Amino acid sequence: MNALQPHSETPTNGQEDRYLASTHDVVNQPPALANYNLFEQDTALQEAVIREGAEAATPELKQFGALAGAAATIDLGFKANSNKPVFQTHDRFGHRIDEVEFHPAYHDLMTIALEHGLHSSPWTNPGKGAHVARAAKYYLHSQVEAAHCCPITMTFAAIPSIRKQPELARDWEQRILANRYDPRNVPDGQKACVTIGMAMTEKQGGSDVRANSTKAFPVGAEGPGQAYELVGHKWFVSAPMCDAFLVLAHSRGGLSCFLMPRWRPDGSKNPWQIQRLKNKMGNVANASSEVELRGALAWMVGEEGRGVPTIIEMVAMTRFDCMIGSSAGMRQAVAQATHHCRHRSAFGNRLNQQPLMQNVLADLAVESEAALAYTLRIARALDNQDQEHERLLARLATPVGKYWICKRTPNHAYEAMECIGGSGVMEDCIMPRLFRESPVNAIWEGSGNVQCLDTLRALQKEPETLDAFFREASEAKGADRRFDLFLAQLQQDFGDISDIQYRARNLVDRMALVMQGSLLLRHSDPAVADAFCASRLQSAGGMNYGNLPSGTDAAAIIKRATPVVG
Ligand SMILES: Cc1cc2nc3c(=O)[nH]c(=O)nc-3n(C[C@H](O)[C@H](O)[C@H](O)COP(=O)(O)OP(=O)(O)OC[C@H]3O[C@@H](n4cnc5c(N)ncnc54)[C@H](O)[C@@H]3O)c2cc1C
Known about the structure:
Elements lengths: L15 H4 L23 H9 L6 H12 L1 H12 L3 E5 L5 E6 L2 H12 L5 H4 L5 H15 L4 H14 L3 H11 L19 E4 L15 E4 L8 E12 L5 E8 L2 E8 L10 E6 L10 E14 L5 H37 L1 E2 L2 E2 L4 H29 L4 H33 L10 H7 L2 H4 L4 H14 L2 H10 L7 H13 L10 H20 L2 H12 L16 H8 L5
Bound molecules: flavin-adenine dinucleotide (FAD).
Flavin-adenine dinucleotide binds next to strand 3, strand 5, helix 14 and helix 15.
C-alpha cells in the first residue's frame, strides 16, 4: 500500500487528506497495571500472611489491596515524586518558619498510611499476627510510593524508645498512635496526632555515632526525663516536618538520647533550624535535611550515657521496615515486568513465552518471593518476643535480612526495568522510581557492613542466637540435598572464627540464603523452592538474573507471580 494512502479501515468520504495525519495504530502495548487488587493478585503474600499468623487480617488486606491498586492511588505516587518538597526558611514578613512544603499528593499518601495504622497497629492491637498484618499492609502501600513511608516508619519505630521514659510516653504515646494526620506547622500541643523523626547522623560520622559532637546542657536538674538544651548540628534529618525527633547528644554522663519537639511548650519555635534540603537521587517525595540546633529544648529519654542502646530500639524497628520496603520494591518490579511480558510480543511470540525471558522473569520472581518469606517470618518473630526462640531469631535474623534483602534490590530493579525495554526507563513508568529508590534502604539505618558487624556483635554477645538461627533453618533438613549440603558447610564455617570480620559478608550472605531456602522449601510452591536451591544454593557460576538451570518450571513460577490485569 502507498504510505500516503489512508488505512483500509479509514472512511474515505472525501476527506482523505485529513486522515494522512493518522500515522499508525498503537498495538503490542500492555494495558496500564492499575485498578487491580495488590493483595488478591499476590499469591505468595496471601499464603505468607496466613502462614505467619495473620489470617484474621485477610479481609482488611483485601480492602487495602484494592485501594493500593486503584489508579488514583498510583497517581498520587507519581505526583508526589514529580513535585519535590520545597523548603522555606522565612515567611514573607521575615519570621523564621523552617517549613517544608509538599505536594498535596504527599499529604494524601501520608493520610492513607496513618489512617490505616501503618505506624500504630502492632502497638495498639498487639498479639497474634499484629506485626505480620501491619508488615503486609506496609508492603502493599510502599509499592505505591516508598519515600513517604520514611516518616511512617520512624513514627512507628519510635514507640519502643519513647517507652523507656514513661512520663514522656504518657505525654506523647496516644498522639503518636492516633490514626490521623495533621500536617500543620503548629505546636504539637495543638495537635491530637503527631509524627516522629530521628536525628543521629552528623558530618563526621553516621555509622559511628559515638563521634557525635552535639552537646546537651541541662536546664535545671539532670538525668532521665529532665529538660536540656541541645547545641550542635545534624547532617541528615529526614522528614523534618515531624512534630518531634529522637536526637543523640552528649550530656555530662555521655552520649544520651533526647526527645526534641519542633516547638516549645510555650508555643514558641524551638531553635532548631533547617539549613537546607538534601538533593537526593531517589526518595524524592520525602524531604531530608541538614539541621542546626541552637539551644533546642529536649527531654532525656532513658539512662544518661546510654543513648545508643536507647535509640537502637527504634533503629531495630526501622531496620525491619527496610526489609519490608525493599521486599515491596522487588514485588512491584516483578509485577511490572511480568505484566508487561504477558502482553508484549516480539519475534512472533509473547515475551513471557520466550524461554530466555522466562528464565529472567522466573529468577526475579524467586528473589522477590524469598525476600517476602524472610520478612514475614521476622514479623512473626516480632509478634512472639515473649518466646525465647523468637527473640533470639529476631535479634540475629534482622541485621542479616536487612543487609541481604536491601542489597539485592538495586540489581533486581534494574533487571525488571530491562524486561520492559526502553519504556521501562521512562519517567511515566514506575521503574525509574523503583530503581532510584532501591539503594537507599541498604545505606540508611546502618549500611551493609554495619549490618554484618551487628550480626557478629549479636553472635558474640548472645551465641545462642546462632543456635536459634540454625534450629529454625534446619527445619527444612532432608527436603533437598542441595540445601542440606549448603547448611552443613555454613555451620562448619562458623567453627572457624579467625578473620571473621573480613569474611563477614560471605557468612551473612549465606545465612540469608540458608534461611530463605529453608522457608521456601517448607512453605512455597515446589517450583519456586527448587529454582531457589538450584540457583542460590548450588551455583553453576552465572552471576546475573536468568541463570535458573534447565528443568526449572519457570512457567509455573511466572504464573504464580503475574498479576492478571487486562
Ligand atoms: C536519604 C537518606 C536519609 C537519611 N535520613 C536520616 C535521618 O533521618 N536521620 C539520621 O540520623 N540519619 C539519616 N541518614 C543518614 C544515614 O543513616 C547514614 O548516611 C548512614 O548511617 C551511614 O553513615 P555515613 O553517611 O556517615 O557513612 P559512614 O558512617 O562514613 O560509612 C561509610 C561506609 O563505611 C562503612 N563502614 C562504617 N564502619 C565500618 C567498619 N567498622 N567496617 C567496615 N565498614 C564500615 C559503612 O557501611 C558505609 O558503607 C539518611 C541517609 C540518607 C541517604
